[in-house]
């Protein structure tokens, strides 16, 4: 964007040449040809022109001071991009597939061999699957209808198996990464292995594929904020320390496994139900807390 507005100091030109070289080396022949067709010059040639202008001293002889100068040589070096919006857009798409910008001038490779085309293919097939099965697959239907009906661990586990049976590329990690390659500004990467394995990520993937949410972010990453909101909005009386800890444990279960009920804990942690009953005074109150937290934490 700075380049198209005529801001062409040496650092920007060096960065552009380095990016062009890196993308050229990782791009397929088809991608290189597409860029050449759009820009009128291939990436490697453009990068070499910039490097050559540094080496022969012509840029040193024509220093950049401000954008209002003619800067004829510098503008000529970037002309294939500055005059071709589609070429700029395509370069950004390719860049998104290979490089994640951490801060200006510092890049990190996202993955080796993970192309934009591969991500687009995976996402397209996934979204086609969602549209085709949104009425017949109960979990997808409940997510799409967004009525607040329980979406349980069993439903999500079944959905996970059906995704993988339909296409081996439909794992949580791969789908999330594919969306991240294509939408870096609206996809928050999963932080670690434990977060990547959380079943409720499936809920968010389905929602994002259906354009129900503007940002793809795990429910686990939202848990702390939503828990505080729930405590403030749903409790007239301040929760005791014990009640708060029990509610937090329920929250952690929900954002990892889906909606929970009394039965969810009875088979695995019957002692927890006794603690909850003692803390809240009755099982009816516990049931209310379970339902309320499930609905609030899983909301779109």
Describe this structure in words.
This protein is mostly helical. It has three domains: 10-109, no CATH class; 116-217, no CATH class; 220-297. Helix content is 66%, strand content 3%. It is built from 17 helices and two strands. It has helices spanning 10-26, 29-39, 43-55, 58-61, 72-82, 85-98, 116-133, 138-145, 153-166, 172-182, 193-196, 201-209, 219-234, 241-257, 262-266, 270-280, 283-297, and strands spanning 99-103, 106-109. Strands 1-2 form a two-stranded antiparallel ribbon. Strand 1 (99-103) and strand 2 (106-109) form a beta hairpin. Helix 1 runs antiparallel to helix 3 (43-55). The longest helix has 18 residues, at 116-133. It starts with 9 loop residues before the first helix and ends with a helix.
Which helices and strands, and how do they pair?
Blueprint: H1 10-26, H2 29-39, H3 43-55, H4 58-61, H5 72-82, H6 85-98, E1 99-103, E2 106-109, H7 116-133, H8 138-145, H9 153-166, H10 172-182, H11 193-196, H12 201-209, H13 219-234, H14 241-257, H15 262-266, H16 270-280, H17 283-297
Antiparallel strand pairs: 1-2
Helix pairs in contact: 1-3, 1-6, 2-6, 7-10, 13-14, 13-17, 14-17
